[in-house]
Amino acid sequence: MNISFENQVALVTGAASGMGLATAQAFAEAGAKVVLADFREDVVQKEADKLVAAGKTAIAIGCDVSNDTQIEAMIARTVSHFGRLDVAFNNAGVMAKAAPIAESSHEEWERVIGINLRGVWNCMKHELRQMEEQGSGAIVNNASVGALTGNPGIASYIASKHGVVGLTRTAALEYVKKGIRVNAVNPGLIDTQVARDVVSGDEQAYDEFAKRVPIGRAGRPDEIASAVLWLCSSGASYVVGQALTIDGGLTVG
Question: Is 175 known to be catalytic?
Answer without folding.
Answer: no
